[in-house]
User: Fold FAD-binding PCMH-type domain-containing protein from Ditylum brightwellii.
Amino acid sequence: VSVDEEKMEVTAGGGVTFRSLAEAVGDADGALPIGTGDTVGVTGYLVNGGISGYFGRRLGMLGQRVIELTFVTADGVIKILSPSSSSDEDSTLFNSVLGAGSALGVVTSVTLKMESGSSFQSGGQVIVPCGTQDSAKRFARLALSFLRDSVLPDESVSMELVVTADFTCISTFIFYDSFKFDPISYVNPIRDAATAGNVPIVVDNVTQWNTWLEAASCLWPIIKEMKGNPLVRMDHSMGTTTYPDDDLLNFIANEWIGGVPLEDASQSIVEIRRSEER
Ligand SMILES: Cc1cc2nc3c(=O)[nH]c(=O)nc-3n(C[C@H](O)[C@H](O)[C@H](O)COP(=O)(O)OP(=O)(O)OC[C@H]3O[C@@H](n4cnc5c(N)ncnc54)[C@H](O)[C@@H]3O)c2cc1C
Assistant:
């Protein structure tokens, strides 16, 4: 990994994983829309996923931050590709690599434009162990209403709701530089949802992360402990142009959370995210 702090650019080789990228970006007081796993390959993520639940709303997808990438095609041709690649063929190849790259060749390095670390204001979580599936369903339905009605219209904050196999609901908030309210009182509706369902709150600290790197690395120790072969449902909602209606929220609460055998897999996770349309 090499960083050009003046240009706010970082270059990662094809085999770099997120821990070393994130630490280099954090040292440069930068920020990038990275994923949650420290052992995930930067280029593997770039060419197959690139959806950052925590940072996507402010920073977009990682692919949107590519300035240049070096790509070896399946027939051995080395290409330097960028968003402004001049030929139609290279331009098409560049766009195709960001989504289908692993079927087309190998990325040997990528240069990314960092955002300033000050784009991140603070972040943290409210963790509610609901205890039963029914209770998780009811809590999540209220949390989803808050997500739709308060979070989605406000571009200065993002929220991710995760429901784990033991019916713990984790609401993660990221407040960006343009957030003008008090983060602690902002999440009162989540506390109210816990009170309404008579379920405890075991973690209530939405300002626990004060730097981008603290937020970016928060799940590394948890992911390290994960073992086994989990049943994982990941349901991402990207680029929706309208707010979800009640029917959709009911479906998510009743079917994704209330209707699947979460308890049968020790690490099953339902993730509900929404990034700004881009
Ligand atoms: C703990 C964890 C958290 C995750 N979080 C997120 C998340 O928040 N957001 C998200 O979008 N995704 C997330 N993912 C999914 C992850 O982005 C994909 O699984 C990704 O494909 C993993 O890439 P890898 O290089 O680590 O894996 P590998 O299994 O090594 O590679 C996956 C595929 O990518 C290809 N590939 C890898 N490197 C290159 C390269 N340099 N050039 C061309 N092809 C290449 C491989 O050939 C293979 O087909 C997560 C995964 C894990 C395990």
Summary: The pocket of flavin-adenine dinucleotide is lined by residues 14, 35-37, 40-41, 43-45, 47-51, 53, 101-102, 106-107, 223 (CB under 6 Å). The CA atoms of residues 5 and 28 lie 6 Å apart. The chain is about 30% helix and 30% strand. The chain has two domains: 2-113, 119-275.
